[in-house]
Amino acid sequence: MAFHGKPCDTCGHCVTLRYRIQSNSHAPWQLVCASCWKQIAPNNPDYRYGGTWKAKS
Ligand SMILES: [Zn+2]
Predict the structure, then answer these.
(1) Based on the number of CB atoms within 10 Å of its own CB, is 18 exposed (0-12), middle (13-18) or buried (19 or more)?
(2) N or C end of the chain, less CB within 10 A?
(3) Is the pTM of this model over 0.85?
């Protein structure tokens, strides 16, 4: 089975589940993988979370 995913906006890895986040209220929305989200969210009081997006295979 081929792995179908979408690239993370931060690290570029293809994942099937991405988190929609803003690093601050003026930044563009990004779709990032779980590991990038975990790096960004705890260190950033201004970040905003916009839900999870699943890639359709
Ligand atoms: Zn990533």
Answers:
(1) buried
(2) N
(3) no
